[in-house]
């Protein structure tokens, strides 16, 4: 009897998944709101525990699309349905696409400050750092953005640093990877705390930040200058290190042609 009931539930779940996929992957905002109002968010969250990787992948993709509505209601409903902890499960166990979409859903949920703290406490940081290291290019981008959003809540900074994120962010400073802007903005946030500055310096980050000021995009230059300003405010030792790496001329150039924030940091 239990087996028959379970089989019936699984069949129903598969049908729901296909229906949801058909409606949600169209990325229609009306459908996103409709799904939430019908209570299907709870179903999607339950499906994230599925051992069928395709069901799990489709469900997290659908949940991501629901979170992208123009209003905040869906994001609040997702967070209140205990989805955060289940998204961490997908980050650990899912396919590459499922992990990417789980990270992207987390990005959407970090719009709310309380969610940033909950996500940090839920164990998401370790799997996000793993995605930063081992994911596809899109996965690395999603992981970096999620870590940046989480790092804006100071309480998460230590966990991000302790997780080993800095060495991977430093590794992504290679311009050929197209990740300099994303890596630099996270490093700028982590440089606001003493342990962040220590780890960034030990990992060889200062010369790469100087290079970003010289060769980066306007946004990259701005965030590199922000990061280095924290080093220079910290100690004379770091000031000397920044100057020894040749930061003087590019900083002068940035003071003349950079964004208003970049000029302020210079």
Describe the structure.
It is a single chain. The protein is elongated, with a radius of gyration of 21 Å. The longest helix is centred in the first third of the chain and has 23 residues, at about 1-25. The chain has helices spanning about 1-25, 30-35, 40-45, 55-65, 75-80, 85-95, 95-110, 115-120, 125-135, 135-150, 155-160, 165-170, 180-190, 195-200, 205-215, 220-235, 235-245, 250-255, 260-265. The protein is built from 19 helices and no strands.
Number of helices: 19
Whole-angstrom Rg: 21 Å
Number of strands: 0
Structural shape: elongated
What are its keywords?
Leucine-rich Repeat Variant; 79% helix; 266 residues; mainly alpha; 2 domains
Helix and strand arrangement:
Layout: H1 2-24, H2 29-37, H3 40-47, H4 53-67, H5 73-80, H6 83-93, H7 96-109, H8 113-121, H9 125-134, H10 137-151, H11 154-162, H12 165-171, H13 180-190, H14 194-202, H15 205-215, H16 218-234, H17 236-244, H18 248-257, H19 260-265
What's the quick description here?
This protein is an all-alpha fold and 266 residues long. The protein is 79% helix and 0% strand. The chain has two domains: 1-163, Leucine-rich Repeat Variant (Alpha Horseshoe), CATH 1.25.10; 167-266, Leucine-rich Repeat Variant, CATH 1.25.10.10.
